[in-house]
Amino acid sequence: MTILRKMIAEFIGTFTLVFLGCGAAVIAGADGTTGIGLAGISFAFGLALIGMAHGIGPISGCHINPAVSLGAVVAGRMTVFEMVRYWIAQVGGACVAALLLLIIMKGRLAGYDVGAGGLGQNGWGEGYLGEYGMISALLFEIIATFLFVVVILGSTSPGAPTTMAGLAIGLTLVAIHLVGIKVTGVSVNPARSIGPAIFSGNVTAIAQLWLFIVAPMIGAAAAGIMFREGLLIERSQVAHVD
Q: Among residues 67, 82, 33, 235, which one has the least CA distance to residue 143?
């Protein structure tokens, strides 16, 4: 029952992140004149994470991100078996959120062309936001995820002021979005990318999905290694699991 509770928590948390974050982009609008703008979208993702950190953090640790779970495994804080269970819940939550967001948008009386408007999916290249190339997208996602997971692992390490962890992690996600939305729409989270890409029906988004799985995993694994080897905290603070 313990792992089931954790999976339910991770499902709800990832659902919330995608539904509110991508929902802010699709429903509230990226146009700063008639909508909340890119800054508003950035805060929607960050505030959703802060809320879930308090809501489900005591249950599952509020990973709500397959890359974060991988970083925790590499750092020696959870088992591979538990990580796989987390991944299933996270991807499931993201897909359900994207599906429900699509249903809501299709309910607009004026109609909604998901092919044109999308579901907040990530991407790069010609026609996508700032029109950055693949190398720029790859580098940004690796670096941003590395920094994000460093904050997560560091703020939840033994001896850290964990009461502030949720706020620190959420504000870091805001900062990452403020910098990177024009580059990739910001993933740093494979589940967040998978759900919207699948239900957007956008062939390009699905074809580019590999980058938003591979790059965050590389960045997260690198952060996990730093903590496992005691390069960022004392080795005596490294908590290993069997």
A: 67
Convert the pLDDT of each residue in 76-110 to its tens digit: 999 999 999 999 999 999 999 999 999 999 998 88
pTM given for the model: 0.94
Quote the CA–CA distance of 38 and 200 in Å, as a whole number: 20
User: Which domains are delineated in the chain?
Assistant: 2-237 (1.20.1080.10)
| pLDDT tens for each residue of 205-235 | 999 999 999 999 999 999 999 999 888 875 5
Whether 153 and 72 have beta carbons less than 8 Å apart is answered as yes
pLDDT in tens, 132-173: 999 999 999 999 999 999 999 999 998 888 789 999 999 999
Instruction: Classify residue 86 by burial, with Cβ atoms within 10 Å: 0-12, 13-18, 19+.
Output: buried
